[in-house]
Amino acid sequence: MPDLILRSSVGLLPVSIFLIVLVYLDSYKLVRFRAVLLAIAAGGLSAVASYFVNDLGLQLTGMSLTSYSRYVSPLIEEALKGLILVYLIRNHRIGFPVDAAIFGFAAGTGFAMIENLYYLGVMSDAHIAVWIVRGFGTAIMHGGATAIFGIVAHTLAEEKQSTGLAVLLPGFLVAAVVHSAFNHFLFAPVLSTLGILVLLPPLLVFVFQRSEASLQKWLAIDFDADTELLELINSGNFSDSKVGHYLESIRDHFKPEVLFDMMCYLRLHTELSMRSTGMLMLRESGFDVEPDPEVKAMLEELRYLEKSIGPTGHRAVKPFLRMSSRDMWQLYMLGE
Predict the structure, then answer these.
(1) What is the C-alpha to C-alpha distance for residues 226 and 237, in angstroms, rounded to an integer?
(2) CA of 118: how far to CAs of 12, 77, 115, 223, in Å?
(3) DSSP 3-state percent helix, strand, coil across the chain (nearest 5)
(4) What is the DSSP letter of 292?
(5) Nearest to residue 153, comparing CAs of 143, 142, 144, 164?
(6) Quick one: which of 52, 43, 45 has its CA closest to 16?
(7) Which range (59-68, 95-104, 145-154, 319-328) has the least confidence?
(8) CB neighbours of 246 closer than 8 A, spacing ≥ 6?
(9) CB under 8 Å to 180, separation ≥6 — which residues?
């Protein structure tokens, strides 16, 4: 029994502790604990799915287990884990690379925990060295590979303002290559484990530093732009501004009530954006800020106005709203 507890601890704790450290390093607390738990659960489900898919793949390909684990299973497993990140990116649940790193490592953690629990059941008497490799090497590799996929995919999605296959494929291939290289055991298993432990932490720390610098810059620009637009809307000179001239030029294409709703939509969206930016600034300063109770009603009104103005009206006001995936994430976060 003590041996089983020791093997379980070595197999499961390292990757869990690593994930906790990543969440702790997120000074803005962009990812909520509940979302991390859901990502872990989703990663666990992907491990269950990969068991059946890999079993079928082995039968269909007729490959040896060694060759299959080097060339096929990394593709399948990274694809299944990566689907979690694809969903989050496409639904604007990720705003910055640090989010992608945390969600990716959480999904990999869930995968590794279920995988190691399975191996504990089928090879519980394996030497402790095996569990050191699985706990400190394989498990952290699973988390790191999926984190890399998320970082690369999110970065490209922001640059290209797209979530198509061309944007998602590079990150997936990098993750699969890392996974495959680990499974090749180009060096001794213990050396491969040491390599993961030496290379991965500095990479993630670098990503966190770059992400936080990007967030600080974005917050400053975003808050200034929102303040300027809101002051313009509230001033008596709005009709003389470029935005006012633009709305005047399209007034013949919309009913008066739709134009009014477009103006309300523009103002409400800007107010929500400012609230979200302010919340992030307070979190950076160490305050645990909860959303204002009024925010839920404001978001419901925003959705109502979006339906009221319709797709055409939305396209008409879009040039004055920062509607990138990062800004959509900002509104989603405000409603959490």
Answers:
(1) 17
(2) 12, 16, 5, 49
(3) 85, 0, 15
(4) P
(5) 164
(6) 43
(7) 319-328
(8) 319, 320
(9) 70, 71, 74
- The token pair at 279 is 């919340």
Residues 137 and 193 sit within 8 Å (Cβ to Cβ): yes
CA distance 291 to 164: 32
The tally of CA atoms less than 13 A away on the side-chain side of residue 21 is 12
Give the Cβ contact number of residue 115 at 10 Å: 22
Q: How far apart are CA 157 and CA 168, in angstroms?
A: 8
Which amino acid is it at 136?
Answer: F
Among 241, 289, 290, residue whose Cα is nearest residue 266: 241
Number of helices followed by number of strands (H, E) in the chain: 13, 0
320, two tokens: 């004055």
Stretch 284-291: mean pLDDT, rounded?
64
CA separation for the pair 194, 297 (Å, rounded): 52
Would you list the DSSP string of 101-150?
HHHHHHHHHHHHHHHHHHHHHH-TTS-HHHHHHIIIIIHHHHHHHHHHHH
pTM of the predicted model as reported, rounded to 2 decimal places: 0.72
> How many Cα atoms within 13 Å fall on the side-chain side of residue 196?
31
Q: Is 92 left (phi over 0), alpha (psi -120 to 50) or beta?
A: left
**CB hemisphere CA count around 213 (13 angstroms):** 6
| pLDDT over 60 (residue 11) | yes
Measured in residues, the chain has a length of 336
Q: What's the CA gap between 134 and 189, in Å, rounded?
A: 9
Tell me whether residue 133 is exposed, middle or buried, using C-beta atoms within 10 angstroms of its C-beta: 0 to 12, 13 to 18, 19 or more: buried
